[in-house]
Design goal:
The complex is a heterodimer of chains A (282) and B (292). Chain A is mainly α. Chain A contains 14 helices and no strands. Chain B folds into 2 domains: 51 residues; 176 residues, MetI-like (MetI-like fold), CATH 1.10.3720. The chains are: A mainly alpha (282), B mainly alpha (292).
Chain lengths: 282, 292
C-alpha cells in the first residue's frame, strides 16, 4: 500500500515526511496554545490584576472573593451539573429501554417528538420556559435550570441509549426473564452492564453541556447568589472596580475548563464515540 | 413479542411505564412551552406584567420593524456563511490529514479536539482576554501594527469566526472521519489502479461518496451558526456600534434588556423557528442522493 511505502524509515521517507510533521505540528500548537497560555497567564504577574509581582495565585484569590465567592458558584454549578447528569441518565436509560424493547401505542410518535427538540432553537423555548417556571414556583431556581437542561439533553441521550439497547442481543434479557426476572430485574442485572459504555457517553455529554451552559441560567436565574460559574466569571469581567480584571477572568476560565479538559483526557474514547453516534444519525 | 412480558397488554403497559419519564419531560418542558410561545407571539406580554390578551399581529410587525432587525438578519447570515464554509473545509482538510492511524496522528486528533470540550462561553471568555489590547500576548504586536481584534466590525466578525473555528473544527473533523471511514477501501484501490491521481480521487471519489456526511455537517453548522449567541454576547457584546448583533441576541435584547417585551421576542423566535425548519428541509432536499 502507498501508505506503507511512504512511512518506511528511509532517509528519503523522513525527508518527505518532515514538512508534514512541521505543518501538522504547527496546526496542533494553534489549538493547544490558547489553553496553555491562559493557564500560564493566570499565575504570572500582570499590572492591573491581583498578581502584579512574581508568580502566584493572586488572581485566584480575586476570583475566590468575588461577590458570593467562587465556592458558592462552584457549588451552584456542581448542583446543576450533577442533577442534570442524574436525571438525564435515569430518563434516557428507562426511555431507551422502552423504545428498544417494547411496543406500545404512541412509541414512534414520542420518539420523533423527543428528537424534534433538536430542531427548535434554544431561545425559542427559553422564553416560554421562563414564564412557565415562574408559574410553578421554579423561578430563579437551580433545580429549574437542571430540569430544562435535562430536556435539552434528551434527543441525544435517548437516541444513544436506544441504539445501545438495540445492540444487545434480545436473547440475553429473554433468558433472564425465563429464569424468573421481571423486566426491571432483567434491566438491572443483565442489560445495565451491557449498556454501560452508552451510559458513560450520555453522562459525559450531559455533564459538559450543563457545566458549560450559559444561556439557560442567564435567562432563568436573576439572583446573583444563585448564578452558575460561567455567569459569575462573565459578570466578574466588568464588575471588579469598574475595569476589566483580565487576571481574574483567566483564573475563572481555568477553573471552568479544568474539569472539562480532565474528563476529555480520561474519557477520550467515549467522547469521540458520542460525536460519532451523532454522525451516524445522518 | 410473546416472550417479552406476560402477555401483550402487560408489555404495552410496561413500555409506557418505562417511557413515562421521557414523555413527562418532553410534554412539560418542550410541547407545552412550544404551544405557549405561539400564544405569547400573538399576545401583548410585558416581562413583568405578563399576559395582557391577544394583539396579533402587532408583535410580528414590531419585531420585523425593530431598528436592529434588518442588520441582525444580514449579519447572522453573513456569519453563518463564513463559519459554515470554513468549518466544513477545515474539518474535511484536518480529517484527511489525520486519517491514517498512527501515534502522531492520534496526538494530532486529540489536540484538535481538546477545545471542543470547553463550553462556548468559557472559550469566548478565554478569547476575550486573548484579544484584549492590554492582557493579550499579542498586545505589543497590536500596538506596533495599530491593529485591534474587536475594534472594527470586520475585525470583530473575523475574530469571532476564528474563536468558533478553534472551538468546533475538531468536532467537524470527527464527523468527516466517520464519513471517510464509511467509504470502502477497495473503491480507492480501484481508482488508484485506474491511474487516478490524488486530486482526481478526491474530486471524483471522496467528495461524492462523502455527500451524506457533508449534508449532515452543513445542516448542523448552519443551524448552530444561525442561532449564535454566546460568542457575540460575551466576546463583542454586539459591538462595535451594534455591528455584530445576531438574531438570537436581538431576541434576548427585546425580552430582557430594556424593552422587556416577551411578546415581541416570542414572535421573533417563532419566526426564527419557521425559517430554520424551512431551511433544513431545503438543505436536506438539496443534498438528497441524485438517484432518488
Amino acid at each position: 500500500m502507498a501508505v506503507d511505502s511512504r512511512s518506511t524509515l528511509t532517509v528519503a521517507g523522513v525527508a518527505l515526511r518532515t514538512p508534514y510533521w512541521v505543518f501538522t505540528g504547527a496546526l496542533a500548537l494553534i489549538f493547544i496554545f490558547p489553553l496553555v497560555w491562559t493557564a500560564v497567564a493566570s499565575v504570572s504577574p500582570h499590572p492591573g490584576t491581583n498578581q502584579t509581582h512574581g508568580w502566584g495565585f493572586g488572581n485566584y484569590e480575586t476570583l475566590a472573593g468575588y461577590q458570593a465567592g467562587v465556592w458558592r458558584y462552584l457549588a451552584n454549578s456542581a448542583l446543576v451539573s450533577l442533577l442534570t447528569v442524574a436525571l438525564t441518565l435515569t430518563v434516557s436509560l428507562l426511555g431507551g429501554y422502552a423504545f428498544a424493547r417494547f411496543r406500545f401505542p404512541g412509541r414512534d410518535a414520542l420518539f420523533l417528538l423527543t428528537l424534534a427538540i433538536l430542531m427548535v432553537p434554544y431561545a425559542t423555548l427559553l422564553i416560554p420556559l421562563y414564564v412557565l417556571l415562574n408559574r410553578v414556583g421554579l423561578q430563579n431556581s437551580l433545580v429549574g435550570v437542571a430540569l430544562v437542561l435535562t430536556m435539552f439533553q434528551l434527543p441525544f441521550s435517548t437516541f444513544l441509549m436506544r441504539i445501545s439497547f438495540e445492540a444487545v442481543p434480545r436473547e440475553l434479557d429473554e433468558a433472564a426473564m425465563v429464569d424468573g426476572c421481571s423486566s426491571f430485574g432483567a434491566l438491572r442485572r443483565v442489560l445495565l452492564p451491557a449498556v454501560k459504555p452508552g451510559l458513560i457517553t450520555v453522562g459525559l455529554f450531559a455533564f459538559l453541556a450543563s457545566w458549560n451552559d450559559f444561556m439557560a441560567p442567564l435567562i432563568l436565574i436573576n439572583d446573583s447568589d444563585r448564578m452558575t460559574l460561567p455567569l459569575a466569571v462573565a459578570n466578574l469581567r466588568g464588575q471588579v472596580q469598574g475595569v476589566v480584571d483580565y487576571g481574574a477572568t483567566e483564573a475563572g476560565v481555568v477553573v471552568l475548563a479544568l474539569p472539562c479538559v480532565l474528563l476529555f483526557l480520561l474519557l477520550q474514547r467515549h467522547y469521540v464515540r458520542g460525536f460519532m453516534s451523532g454522525a451516524l444519525k445522518g | 413479542m410473546q416472550t417479552t412480558a406476560p402477555g401483550r397488554r402487560g408489555s404495552r403497559l410496561l413500555g409506557w411505564l418505562y417511557a413515562a419519564p421521557t414523555a413527562v419531560f418532553v410534554v412539560a418542558l418542550f410541547v407545552v412551552p412550544l404551544l405557549l410561545v405561539l400564544k405569547m407571539a400573538a399576545s401583548r406580554w410585558p416581562l413583568l406584567a405578563g399576559d395582557q390578551g391577544l394583539n396579533a399581529p402587532d408583535n410580528l410587525t414590531r419585531a420585523v420593524s425593530h431598528r436592529l432587525f434588518h442588520d441582525s438578519v444580514v449579519f447572522t447570515v453573513k456569519y453563518t456563511l463564513l463559519a459554515t464554509v470554513l468549518l466544513i473545509a477545515l474539518g474535511l482538510g484536518m480529517a484527511l490529514l489525520v486519517q491514517e492511524s498512527s501515534r502522531w496522528n492520534n496526538l494530532l486528533r486529540a489536540s484538535f479536539l481538546i477545545p471542543s470540550a470547553l463550553g462556548l462561553a468559557s472559550a469566548s471568555l478565554l478569547f476575550y482576554v486573548l484579544y484584549s489590547p492590554y492582557a493579550s500576548p499579542f498586545a505589543p504586536l497590536m500596538r506596533r501594527l495599530d491593529l485591534t481584534f474587536l475594534g472594527s466590525p470586520n475585525a470583530a466578525l473575523l475574530s469571532t469566526v476564528f474563536l468558533v473555528v478553534w472551538r468546533y473544527a475538531g468536532f467537524y473533523m470527527v464527523l468527516m472521519l466517520v464519513g471517510l471511514q464509511s467509504i470502502p477501501a477497495d473503491v480507492f484501490e480501484a481508482a488508484r489502479a485506474d491511474g487516478a491521481g490524488r486530486w482526481q480521487i478526491f474530486r471524483r471519489v471522496t467528495l461524492p461518496l462523502l455527500r451524506p456526511t457533508l449534508a449532515l455537517a452543513t445542516v448542523l453548522c448552519v443551524t448552530g451558526s444561525l442561532l449564535a449567541f454566546e460568542q457575540f454576547y460575551l466576546l463583542t457584546k454586539g459591538g462595535p456600534d451594534n455591528s455584530t448583533v445576531t438574531v438570537v441576541q436581538l431576541i434576548y435584547l427585546i425580552a430582557f434588556q430594556g424593552q422587556n417585551d416577551l411578546g415581541v421576542a416570542a414572535a421573533l423566535s417563532v419566526l426564527v423557528l419557521l425559517a430554520l425548519v424551512l431551511l433544513n428541509a431545503l438543505q436536506l432536499r438539496a443534498f438528497r442522493p441524485e438517484e432518488h
